[in-house]
Design goal:
By secondary structure, the chain is α/β, with parallel strands linked by helices. Strands 2-1-3-4-5-6-7 form a seven-stranded mixed β-sheet, sandwiched between helices. Strand 5 and strand 6 form a beta hairpin. Helix 1 packs across helix 8. The two termini are 17 Å apart.
Length: 204
C-alpha cells in the first residue's frame, strides 16, 4: 500500500505534469492529450497542459476515451490536427481496463494513420501497454513509422527521463534523450507512491 494520501497523489501528479509540460510537450505548438476518465489522469493532464500553454502559448486539446467512444474520439483528435499526441493512461482505473483502452486507442490512431509524434505515459508503459498494442500488426507497423517517446523515472537519483522508444518485436528499446532533475519533495512522493518507500537521501 502506498505511503501517500490521496491529496498527495494529486499533488504528485501536479508536479509530474509540470515536468512533462516543460520538458516533453514544449517542443510542439499543438498537442492533443488523450486520457482515461479518472481523477489522477485528469490531474496530471491538466498540469501538463497548463504548463505547456503557459510556456509556449501553444494550443492543447484534451480528449477522454472510454468504452464505446474510442473511434469517435480519435476522429476528434484528427480534426484538431495536433503535432503530437500524449497518451496519458494510468491513474486509479484498473490496469486491465486501462491497457485495453490504450490498445484500442492505438488501433484507432493506426487506422486513421494520424501523422503525429506519440508520447506515452510511464504508467501504461511500465504495465506493458506497448507490448500489448504491437500484438496487432497494424499498430506495430504504425508505431514503426512514427516517432514514439516515453517518459520514465529514475527513482534513486530523482530524475525524469525522456526517451525515444522503438519496438524490436514485442520488446521496447529505449534511447535516453534528456534527463530532468526533480525536487527532493517530488522524488520523495514518487518513491512513496510508486515504490512504497522513501529515498535514501530524504529524511522520512
Amino acid at each position: 500500500m502506498a505511503k501517500t494520501t490521496f491529496a498527495e497523489e494529486i499533488y504528485l501528479r501536479a508536479l509530474t505534469g509540470k515536468v512533462v509540460g516543460e520538458a516533453v510537450m514544449s517542443a510542439y505548438n499543438k498537442v492533443a492529450v488523450i486520457s482515461v476518465r479518472n481523477v489522477i489522469c485528469s490531474a496530471i493532464s491538466a498540469a501538463a497542459e497548463a504548463t505547456f500553454v503557459s510556456k509556449t502559448n501553444g494550443r492543447s486539446g484534451h480528449f477522454i476515451v472510454e468504452a464505446g467512444n474510442v473511434d469517435a474520439v480519435v476522429k476528434q483528435v484528427a480534426e484538431f490536427a495536433p503535432n503530437a499526441v500524449v497518451l496519458m493512461f494510468g491513474g486509479e482505473t484498473p490496469i486491465e481496463e486501462t491497457r485495453a483502452l490504450f490498445v484500442e486507442t492505438l488501433q484507432a490512431l493506426a487506422k486513421a494513420n494520424l501523422a503525429v509524434d506519440i508520447i506515452v505515459h510511464v504508467r501504461i508503459f511500465a504495465a506493458g501497454g506497448l507490448q500489448a498494442a504491437v500484438a496487432d500488426t497494424e499498430v506495430a507497423r504504425y508505431l514503426d513509422e512514427r516517432p514514439v517517446f516515453v517518459y520514465t523515472v529514475n527513482f534513486d537519483e530523482g530524475l525524469v527521463l525522456y526517451n525515444r522508444v522503438r519496438m524490436e518485436g514485442d520488446q521496447p528499446r529505449l534511447t535516453k534523450l534528456a534527463e530532468v532533475p526533480v525536487t527532493v519533495e517530488h522524488a520523495d512522493l514518487l518513491n512513496r507512491s510508486l515504490r512504497d518507500r522513501t529515498v535514501a537521501w530524504v529524511e522520512a
